[in-house]
Amino acid sequence: MNAPHIVGVRHHSPACARLVAERIRALRPAHVLIEGPADFNARLEELYLPHRLPVAIYSYLSAGETHHGSWSPFAEHSPEWQALQVGREVGADVRFIDLPAWHDAFSRMENRYADVADTQHEERAAAYERALTEKLSVQGRDALWDHLFEDGCDSAELAQRLSTYFEHLRGEDPGSLGNQARETMMARWIAWTMAQPAVQAGAPVLVVCGGYHAPALARLWPGLPAQLPETPEPEVEDTPDTGPNASDQDTVVRYGSYLVPYTFKRLDAFAGYASGMPSPAYYQWMWELGPEGAAHRALQQVMQRLRDRKLPASTADLMAVHLRAQGLARLRGHEKPLRSDWLDALAGALVKEALDAPLPWTYRGPMRPGTAPVLVQAMDVLAGDIAGQLADGTPQPPLVKAVRDELAAHGLELRGQRKLDLLDAADRARSRVLHRLALLRLPGVVRSQGPKLAMSGERTEVWTLGQPFEQQAALIEAGAWGANLHDAARARLEDELRHAQGRIGPLAEGLNQAAWAGLPALSGALLRELQQAMAQEPRFEAMGPALAVMHTLLRHGQLLGMADAPVLRVAIEAGFDRALWLLEPPAAIAPSDIDAHLQGHLALRRIVADVLADREDAAQAEPLDVEPARALAVWQRKAADAGAAPLSRGAALGATLSLAHRVPQATQAGVADAMQLLQAMPAPVLGDALTGLLALARETLSSEPAFAAGMDRTVQALDNADFVRAMPSLRAAFAWLPPQERGRLADQVLTLHDATHLSRRALTARHEGEAAPEALAAARAAEDAAIARLAGWGLSLDTEEQP
């Protein structure tokens, strides 16, 4: 029986790409099977369009709460790309044989061609690589790979080295469950191909796969049936949405694959890419120019970059790099300097100070803080700035055309700056479109100015618009979220809200984004998650701002399409009860939480006031399902609790004062109660209690002569020392009064002191060069202390001492 020619490769290795091309041309196989998404086989012709590489197949699955996307990228020096091109050149039947990238086997992988991970199943492979690096005295797996395979050896020796290396790398380890599923799928394709008549008659079959899989495929395929494998489809349970905003249809399942332009930066292991070779530009030069040509191109561009950045890069430095690289190559047994030799030589010749971080080519992942600037620039040059481009006519998801049409319909062009008037209907529609694009994280769509809250009352926002290269790929990838802009933005927002992990702050901000984007309807499942998040929030200060945002949107969101949105009603009703429960226990309030704490009281008061008004209004169909009496009872207990924070006591009493005209039977709180509370406060926290009162009841208190008179008596009763201690918090408290109300209060104080002939500015403003009241009080206190000290020595400033 014939055996397939299984070529195990490292993805994006120019040596492996060259070997694959040579093997196909030499063998002229009837079938070329490639590790790649089998669901793309019907569209392989798209890969033969005249694209500019790199490009990638982006595969996605989006269904309810499940969303997964994965890329299968190709550069010219990728073995899989050479298999596609040369396989077609020799007339072979070319097929992808791996599972679709949305399969559960890829659930933790963003890239099909990811290297073997150090999991419990792959630790043996990692240990083998570590042992080899130690034995051969090289640093890192990339230097090991170069040392063994990228040194320009002939194809026969390279094939033997690869086979030996991958056999030891895998051994008898079964691999992870995901790898087992993928290898079973690929082995089934091999078994089916080997049963074809031409192959039975002696035609060869060539398989290109990741080297880690090669030994397993060789063992698996003979024991599998020869039927044509079926490409699996997503197994997603269609659970009807039963929430308040549910539709009549089951969960929409979207999946598929599209070509997207890619970049060398995204291929680079040092930018976080989990697969293949680092420094893709360097290896592209290796593919095009060979080792010597790649080194010459790399040094030329590195030195030019360093000079452009005003970093040390003299001719003498260049000579030193050459000398060091040649020496390192000889020391390491390389016929010609390899990538790691050149990089080590660059570091040795150009970095003059001690290193604060490891050499970046000795580890994987993003460069670590403290890496020498020279090395950062060198690695960036070797990564390259090549960007791919799709050929005209390449199929794209419906969202791409939908966005283009919607932009045209609203007269929007993605270039320059666009100023929008939010009170203008046409501009408001444009704003919604741009906010939806921003939700999709579309590069080139940036809101550079505008109000933070959707119903803040501000009317102007400014967008900075452009069309960077990354935009096309991002828009194609966003097609996984929906076929039109509204659906895609909503699905993306819902996914982000689910990943907020029950934190109420991000959830409230997400609802604010929904208001900007005109997305009032969210799924029933998400409503339940919002209710649960509200019920589990541990901090009152986190609830306050969130309730304020949501209630504002519920009551005044007509302009943005959010008025009476079910998601807001559900969240507010759950949050109201939780906030009252969190408010009950006595607790200190950190200075950084003061504003959020007051916002919580204000939000609760607004909700209570609106519910009471709605109940009185026969035209109001359905008030919020909350109980105002419970809130009033909690506030009364809080105001009377001597162990509670003064700020919270003042805010609680202020809330009951501000609502007294609506529910007089529930509370008899008045100005006298406010003064009683303030007079019971120690001087340092007097202003804290007053801050709470004014934040919640300034309209009631500032217009009451009894309040001005009471505050005047309270301040008059302070001695100099207490006045100094009370002044900072008192000033902060009166800052809650708008200028007009502060002026009216000043008039009342002037009347109390028969000083109406003075301007109110005598109390409300300080002239240039005039000392602040607290400074004067501090000076008076120091003077009194000095007089007391002198009196203790029998001295007086009132009489002239005789010698």
Question: Would you kindly provide a written description of the structure presented here, covering whatever features stand out?
Answer:
- The protein has 803 residues and is of the alpha/beta class.
- It has 6 domains: 11-117 and 174-236, no CATH class; 270-383; 398-481, no CATH class; 502-597, no CATH class; 627-765; 767-803.
- It contains 31 helices and 10 strands.
- Strand 3 (55-63) and strand 4 (66-74) form a beta hairpin.
- The protein is elongated, with a radius of gyration of 36 Å.
Structure described in brief:
This protein is α/β, with parallel strands linked by helices.
Rg of Cα set? 36 Å
Strand-pairing-aware structural class: alpha/beta
How far the N terminus sits from the C terminus, by CA atoms, comes to 130 Å
**Total DSSP E strands:** 10
Largest sheet: 4 strands, parallel
Strand-residue proportion: 5-15%
Q: Reading side by side through the largest sheet, how are the strands ordered?
A: 1-6-2-5
Shape: elongated
Instruction: Count the domains.
Output: 6
What is the typical, i.e. mean, pLDDT?
A: 82
Q: Helix amount, in percent? A: 40-55%
Number of helices: 31
* Low-pLDDT residue spans: 238-250
Helix and strand layout, with pairings?
Blueprint: E1 5-9, H1 14-27, E2 31-37, E3 55-63, E4 66-74, H2 79-89, E5 93-98, H3 123-136, H4 141-149, H5 155-170, H6 177-194, H7 197-200, E6 205-210, H8 214-220, E7 253-261, H9 264-267, H10 280-308, H11 315-331, H12 339-350, H13 373-383, H14 398-409, E8 416-421, H15 425-439, E9 445-449, E10 460-465, H16 470-478, H17 485-498, H18 504-517, H19 524-536, H20 540-556, H21 566-583, H22 594-616, H23 628-640, H24 646-659, H25 671-679, H26 683-701, H27 705-716, H28 720-734, H29 739-752, H30 761-764, H31 773-792
Helix pairs in contact: 1-2, 6-8, 10-13, 11-12, 15-17, 17-18, 18-20, 19-21, 20-21, 20-22, 22-24, 23-24, 24-25, 24-26, 25-26, 25-27, 26-28, 27-29, 28-31
